[in-house]
Every structure is written in structure tokens, then in C-alpha cells.
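[Automated response] Your request has been received and processed.

Submitted sequence:
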Amino acid sequence: MRFLLSSRPQAPSPTARRQRGSIVVNATIALSLVVIALVGTELGYLFFMKREFQKAVDLAALSGAQKFTPYGSNDGCTDAKSTAVASAALNLPGVPLGTLECGRWAPELAGEDHFVAGTPQPNALRVAIVAAPPVRLLPFFDANRTIAVRAVASRAAPVVAFTVGSRLLRLEGGTLLPNLLKTAGLDLGSADLLSYRGLANASIKPSGLLDALDVPVSSDLDVGTLSAVASIADLSVGGLLDASITALQKQGPAIDAQLAVLQSLRAGLGAAMLETRVPLFGNGTTPGILVGLDSTGADALSADVDLLSLVTTTLGVANGRNLIALDNLSVGILGVQAKASIIEPPSIGIGGTGTVAKTAQVRVYLRVNTSTSIVGSILGIVGTQVDLPLVLELAQSTGTLGPIDCRAPRKMTTVAVSSSQANVCVGRFNQMTSVSDPNPLHFFHTANRCTPGAGGTIPDSADGVRRHQLLSVLGVMPLSVRVGLPVLESQSAVVTPLLQEPVAPSDGAERATVTAAHLDVARSAANISDAIAVGVLGDLLGQGAVATPAARKTLAEGLVGTGNGGRGRSITDVGNEMRWSAQAVAELQASVANGGLTGLLGGVLQGVGNTLGSVLLDPLADVVCNLAGLGAASAVHACRVDYVQNNTLKAGSNLLSSTLTLVLAILDPLLDLLSTALVRLLGVLGLSLGETDVNLLSIDCGTSKLVY
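Generated structure:
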């Protein structure tokens, strides 16, 4: 067989062509996958390094911010930067930090990171890195590998919790708080009081309360969120006590004793008090148990508040303006009634420098109403009734937190205390329906007040105090008066000595009593009674004295009397008693000067003294009456009465002088007893005018935290 061979090349078969093409495609795909894998690895590496860069700047910012001093010294900036550099070198060697800036961070500042660089008193550090990773996985791949990250860390502002004026609600026998608890349904004995004071040994944080109330609190809580938190709906006293119990239970068995006391308090309070709604947070204008969080923010939620302060403040807020009966005022005057009302509750201040806490604003109602005779030490007048409605208004004192020193081994701060004006009013108040309204319900009413108007004086109107019938002399001469005077002017701020953070057991260094005015209780009570006396006399002097002939005859008969065998007292004796009243005015004037009230009251007393010195007496009148009577007692008595009526009590200066004499004779023993009542009253309230107690609860100097 012969084969014919051709020299012409043959074309590849379709199958061979397909096989060769598939190899190229596969190779291309494989190379693409390798490139994608390398690029993906590079991108993954870049993302990984970005996280590492971010972690490094976060740690650098945190460690640097910790070096800032809480009191805002510029010296901390150098330490903060060097610490941040050291931290970055440790966590990310070979990559230098970029920007390092000290400044101020606050949520209300503009900008994405709410940071302003270069401000005085820095509290934050901004750290940035703008660099490429130290290793390039694809060196042949020319692309921009620069990573830019930054972080801002802020040193939390120091937070202090403190109270002012806690003596008002101190938990001791005979003070206002036990009376308040009695009103709320809980009557404490002396053993119970000792146990309840142990609540001061347990503390809880506002954040713990919120957690127990199922209110979520995050570390980035801002002021707006706090405003929403502050309006927790339907928070009752019972709910707050339950939340406190829950927060205590989480602290373990170390505070079981305080937990048992709090549970006992919860069980003993009446339903009305437990259901009373209370605001947990307040601010400068809205009352609340805790104030200052609106300006301090979430940092304030970590402050420690002792349980006794929390409970007593809560009860003060919950009581509202309900009147609290005051017992233990027994004095030698019949018909003494006293009640007190917490017009504005106390508060616990929580925050940084400038935070304000306030004492309770108290209004005291005291009424002396007697239908029995008040026997003067000289005249012995009978048949005289006295109705003295008195309101004592003690406005709030304010404590403002000063600089906080966190450098010392024991943290310290100060509080500047400003004492507000105290006023006393006697007369007819808003709810009293007439000039001689005897109804106690109309007097013991929270709408009755002794508050200065826009001009700084107590208005003579329904909103202030109007004339009220104070005396009814011998049942025929009603005398109506009004008194509205300050007994303690507002005092400028007085700074406490350095207060140190509390330690256990307490050494007292966390407490101080500020005396803004050098007044003791006895002197304060004397000033009040002096102000009443001078106000009464001044009002009588200003309005004059008016009496009908029949009334003047009755007064004359009372002055002369029926003693001495029916003849009565001589006209000379009556005149001498008038001169005694002038001496009484001089003694009152000395007392007023001793109490520092001369500027307010001295002019009134001078006018009263001048009026008393104008009495016209005829030394021969007794001789005339004795001769006219020729020994008959009734005739002598009638002559003396007629002379006193038509001469001593003659309309004009003599009548006014005689009226002042009668009033002085009556007020002299009355106001002595009133001073005693006021001393006891102030003791029951647990306060002295012009004195404010400051109690430091905790100092937290804060830590650094990431804010951007």
C-alpha cells in the first residue's frame, strides 16, 4: 500500500484549539484571584492597621487626659502630651503621633468633636495619627496608604455632693423632722431616732437609683437626656424608697443594718406620704431632691449621697407646704399655738465648682390668743384681751461650691454660704377675713406670708400684712396694729474653712457651721419681740388714739380703780405710772440698740418717748378732789375719775400718751413671755438665725474617658 505524504501543514482540530484556550483563561482567572487576594490582604491589613492606629490614639488620649488636674491647671498639658507619646510608642512602635492638642471639651461646644484647642484650663487631649503602616505588603503597588485617625479624651470634672442647713431637718428628739414624720404617720421614740441616724453610714449613687428605677444610663449621657431622666413620671416617695432599698441590696451584707432601718421606715410611713409624688432631680428654678445634674451631666451620677440626707430631703420635698404642728412650746401664756411650713424644700447639691444647694425655706406661724387678763407689772389692768398673730419668715440660705482640690492626700473644697433675710410680721394676713378674725384655720394657712414686695418692704395689702386688732383695753378701746420688719438682713457670702472628704469613722472635718450674723437664739428672739413692741408703739403713734367720751370714762375708771376704801388711786399715782412708761421706753431703746436695730426702730422710739413726756398733770388735782369730796369716798373717786377722763385722757396728746402707757404696761410682761416662746420655738426648729450648717457628703475627682 502506498501512502501519499503531503508537505502542506494541517490545521489543528477544533478540540485542540478549545483545550489551548481554556488554559489561558484559567491562568488569567488564577492570576486575577491572586491579585484580588493580595489586594484584599492589603486592604484587610490597612483596615487592621487603622484599628490598631485608632486603638493607639484612644489609649494615648486616655492616658494623657488622666494627667490633667481636675482644677484646670495649665501645667497638666505638658505631662498629658508626654504621657500620650509614651503610650503610643508602647502600643504602636515605629509610628509617630501626629497632632497633640490640649483644649477644652464640652458637649455644648460646636464642632464634630465638641473640642476647642488652646483654651485656658484644659480638660481634654486630642491625639491624631496621619501615617502609612510600617509594612507594605505590595511594595510594587503604588497607592496612597495613609491612614488618618484621631481621638479626644476628657478628664471628668470633679463632682462634690453636699448639703446646707441640715440642722433644720436633723433627726433628733423635739426637732422638726420627727414632727414631720409624725404627720406622715410614723411616731419615733428615742431608740428609733438613734437607729435612723445610722442611715448616714450608708451611701448610694444617683446612677444606682436610676438603675433600680429601670432607667438606662449610658456613659455618654448628655444634658438633654438628663432633662428627660429628670422628668421620671409617677415617682412617689414609696417608689424612691423601694429603689433605695434595691440599690442597697446590691451592695452586699455590709450594710444590712441600714437596710433594715430603711425597710422599717418604708413600712411605717402612711399611705398618703408614700403615694406623694416627688421630683428626683431639680435645677436652679425647679425644686428637686438632687440639684446640679442639669449643668454637670453624667459625671454627677457617680457621686455618693448618704442615705440619711437623701431620706430627710425626700420627706421635706414630699411634705410640700403642709403645716407641721410644733409641740413643747409651753410658756406662761394661755392659748399659744405654733405650726411650721416648709415653703421651699432643702436640696442636695451635686456637681462641680459653682453648684448650689439650698436650705429649706421655713415659715413659722405663732398665735397668742388669750381671753384671760394680762396683768401688767405696774397698772394691773384687768379685762384686757390680747390676740397676737405672728408669722416668722426664714428665707432660703444658699451654699455655692468653691474650688475643688484633688492634689492633697485628702481631697478638699469650700462652700460660700449666703444667709437670706428673716422677717417678722404681726397683723391681719391674707386669709383672715376681718380685723379681729379669731378663726385659727384662717391664720394657720400657707397663703399667709411675711414676704417683702418689690420695694423690699412688707406691703400693707392682702399680699402682705394689714392692721389687726391686737388689744381690747378694758373691752372698750380696740387697738389695731401691723408690724412688718426684718429681724435679720441678708448677709454677704461667708466661706467655710476647708472641708475634707468624709472618712470612717468621721472626724468632723467634713462639716462646718457658718455664722453669717453674730446672733444667738436668745438675742434673735429678743430682737423679734423688740421689733413687735416698737412696731406696735410706732403704729399707734402714727394713727393717734381715738376714744368716745364713754370709752374714756371706762378707761379712767380702770386707771383709778376702786381700792383705798373706794377712793381709788390718786391722780399723782396715775401720773407716776405714766412716767414709768417713759422709763420703759428708754429700756426698750437700749435693748434695740444692743440688738443692732437702732437704724430701723430708733426714730420710732424717740417719737414715743417725746409723746410720753408731754402728759399734762396738775399736782393740785388730788387736793381739789379731796376737798371736794369732804371725806366721802364715792365723791373723791368720782372726782378722780372725772379728772383722768377729761384731762389725763383728754383728746390729743394726753390721750395718745395715756394709750401708749396702757399698751406698754400690757406688752411688757407679754413680750417677755413671747421671747421665751420664740427661744423654745427656734430650738424646736433646730436652727439659729444667721447660722447655716454645711455637710460634705463626697468628693469624686473623676477619671478620663473617651468622648470622640
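Summary generated for your ticket: The longest strand covers residues 361-370. Residues 26-155 form one domain.
If you did not submit this request, please reply to this message.
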